[in-house]
Design brief:
The protein has five helices and nine strands, in the order αβαβββαβββββαα. It is α/β, with parallel strands linked by helices. Helix 2 crosses helix 4. It holds the Pfam family Peptidase_M54.
């Protein structure tokens, strides 16, 4: 009888230990975003997290379009994506259209990507990237926004992927996550060197 008591206590104890898991990253392309580019992002993200799902392209939700500037509101896209995702997942929207958000007193500020920290959704756009290194730059923006969803703020290190673009495109200067940001993301079970 004692053995059953100890097994019962052991079971209770084990069930109280939090299990650390990778989040499922769901990739949602919008509009005419290239299937080839989406698959490249999928393969690259798999390197840091094996739990990745690539969904089929869907149209932009109508409420995300901002007609006066002919672009899409990133905050509205994130709101849409957030409503489609579960607790242990994060969704990243991919698009080739111009996206924007409100920044301070500027109602419609054009951006490369947006992710809330922490959050369960983010969006990235290839619209503002240079044609020369577009694929590499796009992946860097995707990692940057996924970093925000994990809770990472902008970083002052000029070569870190979490650097704030500050209205420009410094992506060719950014090489990888800095030591501090890497440590944080490794704590979130990202597989980065």
């Amino acid at each position: 009888m004692k053995i059953f008591f100890w097994l019962f206590l052991l079971t209770l104890f084990i069930n109280c230990i939090p299990i650390s898991r990778n989040k499922v990253i769901v990739i949602q392309p919008f509009g005419n975003f290239s299937n080839v580019e989406a698959k490249l992002v999928f393969k690259e993200i798999q390197k840091i997290n094996p739990k990745v799902i690539l969904k089929k392209n869907i149209p932009f939700p109508l409420k995300t379009y901002y007609k006066p500037r002919n672009r899409y509101r990133a905050d509205s896209i994130i709101s849409f994506l957030s409503s489609k995702i579960g607790k242990d997942s994060v969704m990243i929207g991919l698009c080739e259209k111009d996206i924007s958000t409100t920044k301070g007193k500027i109602k419609d500020w054009g951006i490369m990507g947006l992710g809330y920290r922490p959050g369960n959704a983010c969006v990235v756009s290839s619209y503002r990237l240079s044609k020369k290194n577009k694929t590499e730059q796009f992946y860097k923006v995707a990692l940057h926004e996924l970093g925000h969803t994990e809770g990472l703020p902008h970083c002052k290190n000029k070569t870190c992927l979490m650097r704030d673009a500050e209205g420009g495109n410094p992506l060719n200067e950014e090489k990888e996550f800095c030591i501090s940001c890497k440590k944080y993301l490794k704590g979130k079970k990202w597989k980065i060197l």
